[in-house]
Each structure stands twice: as structure tokens, then as C-alpha cells.
Amino acid sequence: MTLLDPFLRELGIELPILQAPMAGISTPEMAAAVSNAGGLGAIAVGSVDARATRVMIAAVRARTERPFQVNVFCHQPAVVDATREAAWLARLAPEFSRYAAKPPASLTEIYQSFLTDDAKLAVLLEDRPAVVSFHFGIPARERIEALHAAGITLLATATSLDEAHVIAAAGIDAVVAQGYEAGGHRGAFDPDGTDDRLGTMALARLLARKIDIPVIVAGGIMDGAGIAASLLLGAVAAQLGTAFIACPESSADVGYRAALLGPAAHHTVMTSAISGRTARCLANRFTALADGIEGNAIPNYPIAYDAGKALHAAARASGEFGYGAQWAGQGAPLARTLPAGELVECLRSETEKALAGSLSR
Length: 361
Prior knowledge:
Helix content is 39%, strand content 13%. The chain has 14 helices and 11 strands. The protein starts with 5 loop residues before the first helix and ends with a helix.
């Protein structure tokens, strides 16, 4: 691919295609398939502990010798509010009762932020994946320097120019520009701060013009035309998440797949009710339940996720999948069911065709 940026060449990546790290959805099999096809596969370890992180890295390495990305969450540790958490459980109790279940007696912070997770840092420094990426913010400079010293390339998500400036000033190697169209959790550093909700195109061009590190574009990109547009906007690559959910290598359950490939794909909404942090989801029973709920009623992320996961499990046991975290971007109707490696090959062909058409005009 003639427009492959030197940043990608140095990483040993053949295509400007990154598979987004999707916690609970990306698998070692998916990451390896994407990397073997010439892109950059990814696993997300933000919601698992250090031991599971090591197992997942080893599982990818057993399937590929190519580089891949490991993603961690850099959210601020949750603030416990027992009164608010009890009220939230009481509010959800009628939903649990629909499925002959009871809500948990209490809620917990179900996983630790990388900001304070020394054990996970130790695993990354020892196992040295080619790429580590940060979501929801960036860690302390000492952690960044330690990862760099281990020879690891670092990426971080930005939803605004201000966040991108912070990322560049911290010495991180490249920025992932996450447009508002993107599926899953909004990567904003401060979930309670002002969000200008910049779309993918505007954010990509803004960062390409104003930031001196490579820009990777994410949000609503589902095919080669979207990848080509990202490159023409000044990005070095595009990162696709929703495009890979329907692949057989993903761990999406049958209900999630059916929703993604059905009418629900045409209706995505932003909600914080499922996890405690704003994320784009296919419209489902949980997002409908969240309509009209004031934000301050929802426990902190990821404490609220403890309740969300419990409700989904209770409903799923009765055959109802509509309470799941069915994260998806606005390009969801364009999802394909190809194996991940075949999808990458299609994306390559489509991108080259779109670029050739654009450059010949």
C-alpha cells in the first residue's frame, strides 16, 4: 500500500488497519488473525487482572509472530457511594424480578484502573507487547517512561484537541482520534467535563493539522472507503471496532450478533446506565430503561457495571439478551460476518481501490 506511513513500517505493520481493542469482545484469536493478515490486532485487558493479562498475551503470541496491541484503562478509581449504589439496585430490582432474580446485595469496583495497577504494569514490562494503548486518559509519566524503556510503542485515545495535546506532551507515540460516532465507551479523560462531541472527520483533520505525532482515526469506520478517507484527512491509519464484532473470532454472544445484524443496528444511543460511563450501544432494553434517568443517580464506573453485568446475566439465563452491553458505532448496519483475516483482506482491497480512484481524479 503506497501510502503506508513510516510509523507503521517501523512497527512491522503492512496495512493502515488497526482492529480496536474491545474488552469482552476481542479475543487472542481475533488479534492474531488481524495481525497475520497485515493489520494490527488487539486485545483489551482493562477489565481483567494481571494473571489474565499474561494468559491473553501468551495466547496471541501462540498464534502470531507479528506485532499486536494491548489496551489498558486509565480511568480515575471509582468513588464509593453506598447510598447511591443501594438506590440504584432498588431501581433495578423490578427488572431483575422479571426474570425471577434478585439484584446483588451490594456493588463493587469490579476491576482496577491501570493508574494504580502495579501488577499489570509488571506483566507488560516483562512480556513487552509491541504496542500498549491507553483509554480514558494516560498514566503517570513514570509508567510511560518505563513502558518506553521496555521498547513498547504507546498509543492513547483523544476525543478533543486538548486531550491530544496532553498525549503528545507526555511523549506518547501516536494518538487515536475517537469521533463521537464510535461504539463503546467514550474515551474522554474527564467523564464529567465538557464534551464537544466532535465527529470523526472533524476531529481527525483537527488533530492531523495541530498535533505533531501520528494520528489514527476511530469512529464509524466500517470499510475501505472509510479507511481511505481517514488517510486522505492526514491520518496514518484507521482503527475499526464494530466492523469486527460479527467475525466468528469475536466473543460476542448470539443475542449481540443478532442485534448487530438486525434492525437494532440502525439505532445506536449513548448511555451511562449500563456501566456508569458514557458509551454508544445498540438500542435495547437496557438503553430504554435508562431514558430519563438523571446521571447523578448512576454509580461511578465501573461500580455500576457490576449491576449491569448481573442484570444481563439474569435476563440471558431466561433467553433475553436485551440488557447486554451491545456496544456499536454508528456504522453498525455495514457489519459483515467474515472471518477476521478475510475481513482485513477485503478492507485492504477496498482501501486500495478507493485511494486509486481518489488519486486518479
